[in-house]
């Protein structure tokens, strides 16, 4: 019997085994998922925890219950991979051999990578929301904040869900207005990029959203350190951004066991062919989701579309046939701009976000590059779809390959 080993039981890993288990002969293939704990987190929900919309019960469920019947689950920390021997060593001393390996261990925030972040102000005036514990702590800090400089900061790209820090700035603006203290708050968005959005067309069309809300933007800011005593961010070119309350998005890296494995880049993201999702060095190793070094957004939608392509490719691969499908980098994301309002972006490796309607040309129901209440409803309904549709291996009524149907091409000036 052959063994498919999947490292990571999050979004990508769970979707893959849910789609593959019915397609692989149970007498020929054993499937095992390895993860360090039994908590499956709906990570897009972290954005809403600091504002009380979601709590722990809304974003955490047992991991085992999300996996389909016929898939084994091993709760253990991965220590290392030996791709030459096709084995994975666990921290408890066990070794798991594999015939095919899928790495879906995500990308994790590393606040320790920036000097001063974990200093005396950590979880006092310095926060993050890319962990559930961080999002819960930030809720108390936002509730207690009564005025001053509120700074939302991105350390470096790539990060999981690159628009999430912007969304947090928009929701913070709305919360301070609701509390009647917005005139006492200076809200600043600090980014290493040359604009608030990562895609040029989106940056051009949507920059007005920050200006209208009075959110200042500090661009091209490459952070050297946080000075917790002075409560400042300091860049490598000696610029200084003071703060009273800082929400930083730390550097993101792949799993530590990938360091030195020969599979990953310097940020520990697995180097794969962007079309086939297969390792550039080992033909029996694949990577999906945030764990891969794909040149597109690290987001749940990307993992969903990539999983669809991977399943078709994997079925051909194990039968010795050429890989028939190429992942096009399709990604889309709802950007919350205010309570009840959101913008939708849809793009791939080759195409910038464009205005129009999605997924049905001329009908939507979602509008692209424009704020709407329907877009916000789509964002909020996605949590139900995540738990009940995507993780079960079912399809959403959205096209997996990127399509320009219903879109109007625009080029950034």
Summary of the model, kept short:
The chain is α/β, with parallel strands linked by helices.
Strand order of the largest sheet: 5-2-1-9-20
Number of helices: 7
Shape summary: globular
Number of domains: 3
- Tell me the strand percentage band: 25-35%
CATH architectural group of the largest domain? 3-Layer(bba) Sandwich
Largest beta-sheet characterization: 5 strands, parallel
Structural class: alpha/beta
CATH superfamily of the largest domain: FAD/NAD(P)-binding domain
The total strand number stands at 24
- Rg: 21 Å
Mean pLDDT across all residues, rounded? 95
Helical percentage = 10-25%
CATH class of the largest domain: Alpha Beta
| Unreliable segments of 5+ consecutive residues | none
CATH fold description of the largest domain = FAD/NAD(P)-binding domain
Terminal Cα separation, in Å? 57 Å
Give a structural overview:
- The chain is α/β, with parallel strands linked by helices and 413 residues long.
- The chain folds into three domains: 2-107 and 254-318, FAD/NAD(P)-binding domain (3-Layer(bba) Sandwich), CATH 3.50.50.60; 110-250, FAD/NAD(P)-binding domain, CATH 3.50.50.60; 331-392, no CATH class.
- It has helices at residues 11-20, 56-59, 132-144, 164-178, 200-212, 300-318, 373-388, and strands at residues 2-7, 29-35, 39-41, 60-62, 71-75, 78-82, 87-90, 95-97, 100-103, 108-109, 126-127, 148-154, 185-190, 216-218, 223-227, 232-235, 240-242, 245-249, 252-253, 285-287, 331-338, 341-347, 356-360, 364-368.
- The strands form eight sheets. Strands 5-2-1-9-20 form a five-stranded parallel beta sheet, with helices on one face.
- The radius of gyration is 21 Å and the shape is globular.
- The termini are far apart.
- The relative contact order is 0.14.
């Amino acid at each position: 019997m052959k063994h498919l080993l999947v490292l990571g039981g999050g979004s990508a890993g769970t979707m893959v085994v849910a789609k593959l288990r019915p397609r692989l002969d149970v007498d020929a293939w054993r499937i095992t998922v390895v993860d360090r704990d039994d908590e499956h987190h709906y990570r897009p929900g972290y954005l809403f925890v600091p504002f009380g919309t979601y709590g722990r019960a809304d974003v955490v469920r047992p991991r085992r219950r999300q996996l389909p019947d016929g898939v084994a689950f091993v709760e253990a920390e991965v220590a290392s991979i030996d791709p030459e021997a096709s084995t994975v060593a666990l921290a408890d001393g066990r070794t798991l051999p594999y015939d095919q390996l899928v790495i879906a261990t995500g990308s994790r925030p590393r606040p320790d990578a920036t000097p001063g972040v974990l200093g005396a102000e950590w979880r006092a005036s310095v926060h993050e929301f890319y962990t559930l514990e961080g999002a819960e702590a930030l809720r108390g800090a936002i509730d207690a904040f009564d005025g001053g400089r509120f700074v939302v900061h991105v350390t470096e790209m790539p990060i999981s869900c690159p628009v999430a820090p912007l969304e947090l700035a928009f929701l913070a603006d709305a919360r301070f207005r609701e509390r009647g203290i917005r005139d006492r708050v200076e809200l600043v968005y600090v980014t290493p990029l040359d604009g608030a959005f990562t895609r040029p067309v989106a940056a051009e069309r949507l920059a007005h959203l920050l200006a209208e809300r009075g959110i200042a933007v500090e661009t091209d800011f490459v952070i050297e350190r946080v000075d917790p005593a002075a409560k400042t961010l300091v860049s490598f070119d000696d610029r200084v951004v003071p703060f009273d309350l800082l929400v930083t998005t730390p550097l993101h890296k792949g799993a530590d066991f990938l360091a030195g494995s020969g599979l990953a880049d310097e940020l520990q993201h697995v180097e794969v062919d962007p079309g086939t999702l297969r390792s550039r060095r080992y033909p029996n190793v694949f990577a999906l989701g945030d764990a891969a070094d794909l040149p597109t957004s690290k987001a749940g939608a990307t993992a969903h579309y990539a999983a669809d392509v991977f399943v078709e490719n994997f079925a051909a691969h194990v039968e010795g046939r050429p890989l028939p499908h190429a992942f096009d980098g399709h990604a889309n994301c709802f950007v919350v701009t205010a309570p009840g309002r959101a913008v939708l972006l849809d793009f791939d490796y080759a195409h910038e976000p464009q205005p129009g309607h999605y997924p049905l040309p001329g009908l939507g129901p979602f509008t692209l590059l424009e704020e709407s209440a329907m877009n916000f409803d789509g964002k909020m309904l996605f949590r139900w779809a995540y738990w009940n549709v995507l993780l079960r291996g079912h399809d959403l009524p959205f096209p997996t390959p990127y399509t320009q149907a219903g879109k109007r091409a625009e080029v950034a000036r």
